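Sanity check

After download, print the first record. It should look like this:
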Amino acid sequence: MEIGWLNVQSLLNKTDVINAAITERSLDGLALTETWHTASDDTCLQLATPPGYATIDAARTFRHGGDIAVIFCQRWKAAMLPLPVCSTFEAVTVRLTTKTGQFIVIDLYWLGSEQLSMQFFDDLSAVLEMLAVY
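Expected structure tokens:
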């Protein structure tokens, strides 16, 4: 199983490169941060997703920038797991089920230019505690 991560800093002009990277490297999944897409049906997100793959994402509604997505093989059963409300980072969690078992992918993006606070650690602890039950 091969899963990657990439901070893309806008999908707009990188859809072909991301699609090719997944295909050429035979990745089973790719977590993306800073996609800057606006919705799940965003054309850039669709173009970055190769045939035979699906996407679970979280687009910001309150300001431009950030946004995250996980692209994964459609042959796997996927479910987005609910997360507690977090004010200090963006996160999406996906449970993927394969023939050999299950695993969880968490795609988390913290804007590094913002000051790290105790609230960040409280939010992160809440997410990790929730994921521990899975």
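If your output differs, re-run the checksum step. Summary of this record's structure: The two ends are 20 Å apart (CA to CA).
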